[in-house]
UniProtKB/TrEMBL annotation:
Pfam families documented for this protein: Lipase_GDSL
Keyword annotations: Hydrolase, Lipid degradation, Lipid metabolism
UniProt similarity note: Belongs to the 'GDSL' lipolytic enzyme family.
Protein name as annotated: GDSL esterase/lipase
Organism superkingdom: Eukaryota
Length: 228
């Protein structure tokens, strides 16, 4: 395979580390840039990392009722599709960082903005038609649009230069792919995607579409760290 601009860019920048784990449960991308103590944290993706955005939506993809949250410190459902903490919570905890708030939360303002934000929405996938049965969810393209809004809000709060530095030094977690298999291929009877693609073709198609999403995410940085 020919070397892409993404990998050559990373080779020139030892401060940028990208790890992509491709599994049938999801495609997980973690980008580490900058020093741990100065990082903001941005989260994009599906139910594996949604920490409450869908609570603010009219959707069937919700985790705001028991037994969700039974082992959370408050013992109440939080919108996380978990009995307690989820992946972003554990990452924040292990790195000694404050947990991010859902982007849809009205509490995401002031100093909380500088911690970062979670844009994830349960039910979404790599493909825009994934999760159609859940009605109103924040698809990955919309999550990236909200990220642009976030940068504007931070720029207004601390200045554009400081906001750009905060974004460029951030930790970014992207988790996608599971719903494209579960809810858009296997569990939907005679799904359009399963009729369109045999599985050996569907997998590389998803990877190709996921690469485009990652490139869009990278291009939203003032100083782009490309990946594929």
């Amino acid at each position: 395979m020919a070397s892409s601009p993404c990998w050559s860019q990373m080779a020139k920048n030892p401060r940028c580390f990208v790890m992509l784990v491709l599994t049938t449960l999801g495609m997980l991308g973690i980008i580490f840039v900058g020093e741990a103590e100065s990082r903001a944290f941005f989260v994009f993706g599906d139910s594996l990392v949604d920490n409450g955005n869908n609570n603010y939506l009219i959707t069937s993809a919700r985790a705001d009722s028991p037994p969700y949250g039974v082992d959370y410190p408050t013992h109440r459902p939080t919108g996380r599709f978990s009995n307690g903490l989820n992946i972003p919570d554990i990452i924040s905890e292990k790195l000694g960082m404050e947990a991010t708030l859902p982007y849809m939360s009205p509490d995401l303002k002031g100093d909380k903005l500088l911690v970062g934000a979670n844009f994830a929405s349960a039910g979404v996938g790599i493909l825009n038609d994934t999760g159609f049965q859940f009605l109103n969810i924040i698809r990955i393209g919309q999550q990236l649009q909200y990220f642009e809004q976030y940068k504007q809000r931070v720029g207004e709060a601390i200045g554009e230069a400081a906001a750009a530095q905060l974004v460029n030094d951030a930790l970014v977690l992207i988790t996608l792919g599971g719903n494209d298999f579960v809810n858009n291929y296997y569990l939907v009877p005679l799904s359009a995607r399963s009729r369109q693609f045999p599985l050996p073709i569907y997998v590389p198609f998803l990877i190709s579409e996921y690469r485009k999403i990652l490139q869009d995410c990278c291009s939203s940085h003032t100083h782009t760290h490309s990946m594929a």
